[in-house]
Write a structure and sequence with these properties.
heterodimer, A: alpha/beta, Rossmann fold, 10-stranded mixed beta sheet, globular, B: alpha+beta, 2 domains, 4-stranded antiparallel beta sheet
Chain lengths: 257, 150
């Protein structure tokens, strides 16, 4: 692991393995484990399809387990940073405890802002109780600014109008509003406890339209069953953490709107 | 009422109170023990890998209590649906199913990387005794739904 640049932000260590610059307007995708691992499965497909290069990583001795990722004989940090052209993608299969997530959300958004990112795109799943029966999945979106909403004109997604969101993406949206970042959250109906590559594929279709990047999801859908097998242990760990974050609040209708 | 009768009455009352306290303590103790047992079971499940070097996978599953029934969802990617075998004994649901073909988890060094997996195996415990005549099993897109009526 070569270190080109290193900085400590709060309890987190950001390392860049090589210099990189993003083209304008730049997009950032933040993919963290959540319902059905929809975000991370989709993000990995984006990395593969667009040939993003691993340019850095994030570590924390306070909030992450003592872990390294070994990828093609090279040692990488557990939270991985990929980039190419106008796209920065931050990816983690490890779920942080709530205190760590609060700090990481703030720091991550500060980092992407300093990298010149104009739009932050968050993709996840919205767990539905009858996912076993549902075949046609609906996709929702939330934006943090009118400028971000402009990107969703004529796109087949439903504005999420009322309800609760719980988990890492709720924190990222909260911090986006605080930092006045133009963020878009796309989320498709999914399982909560089972990896759901079909929901990831639906999110990617919306992502492609927003960014104008052509990404074929045929391969993702063909590989869906293998992905579901590979993702079982990660999913099992994530479910426990989501329960601690009180993910079940998402099923609660708000009393007053 | 004589003093002796009064004493007997009081003594019976004391015995009743003693019995209810004992029952309450026993109930609470049983409940606490069950909670500890469940927590240990859950920790054990968390630490146990979802595969075995003997060539079987443990599927992900979720159990929902919907009032009139328990619904169990089991994720069985790559399963040969014709081989799904679900059996019930007391409060246990036992699942075995073959994969469509032997499967290796590629690009994974050591550990399970060399193991070829052939089937799924899992035993799920429910809090009630299962009456197999009141059970419905549905399979859809390599996922199983088992409805166990209470």
């Amino acid at each position: 692991m070569e270190v080109y640049r290193e900085e400590f932000l709060g309890e987190f260590r950001f390392v860049e393995y090589r210099p990189f610059r993003l083209e304008k307007p730049a997009y950032a995708v933040v993919a963290l484990p959540d319902a059905g691992l929809v975000g991370v499965i989709g993000a990995w497909h984006i990395v593969k399809s667009l040939g993003l290069k691993e340019v850095g990583g994030i570590d924390s001795y306070s909030f992450l387990p003592p872990v390294i990722v070994v990828s093609n004989k090279e040692i990488k940090l557990p939270v991985r940073i990929f980039a190419k052209d106008d796209l920065l993608l931050i990816y983690s299969e490890f779920m942080l405890p709530q205190a760590g997530m609060v700090q990481l959300s703030r720091i991550l958004l500060n980092y992407v802002e300093r990298k010149g990112v104009e739009y932050v795109i968050l993709m996840s799943g919205i767990p539905i109780q009858n996912r076993f029966e549902v075949e046609k999945l609906r996709t929702y979106y939330i934006t943090t600014s009118p400028k971000a909403s402009e990107l969703l004109k004529d796109i087949e997604a439903i504005p999420f109008e009322n309800g609760y969101l719980v988990g890492p993406y709720a924190l990222l949206l909260k911090e986006s509003v605080k930092s006045r970042l133009d963020s878009i959250m796309i989320f498709t109906e999914s399982f909560l406890e089972f990896p759901d590559p079909e929901a990831s594929a639906r999110n990617i279709e919306v992502f492609s339209k927003i960014t104008g990047k052509s990404i074929d999801v045929k391969d993702l859908l063909e590989q869906a069953e293998v992905i579901r097998i590979r993702a079982r242990d990660t999913m099992k760990n994530v479910v426990r953490n989501l329960a601690q974050m009180r993910k079940e609040y998402e099923y609660t209708p708000p009393l007053h709107i | 009422m004589s003093a002796e009768d009064e004493f007997d009455k009081l003594w019976r009352r004391i015995k009743e109170v003693e019995r209810s306290i004992r029952e309450y303590v026993e109930d609470e103790f049983r409940r606490a023990l069950e909670d500890v047992r469940n927590e240990l079971r859950s920790i054990n499940r968390m630490l146990m890998p979802s595969w075995s070097h003997e060539g079987y996978l443990r599927p992900l599953y979720a159990v929902k209590d919907v009032g009139r029934a328990y619904i169990i969802y089991i994720d069985l990617p790559k399963v040969d649906e014709g081989t799904i075998d679900v059996r019930f004994r007391n409060n246990l649901v036992m699942i075995r199913a073959k994969l469509k073909e032997g499967l290796k988890i590629s690009s994974w060094s050591g550990r399970g990387g060399e193991v070829k997996f052939h089937e799924y195996r899992e035993v799920i415990e429910l809090p009630v005794r299962i009456d197999p005549s009141k059970v419905r099993v549905n399979v859809k897109r390599s996922r199983v739904q088992i409805v166990v009526h209470k």
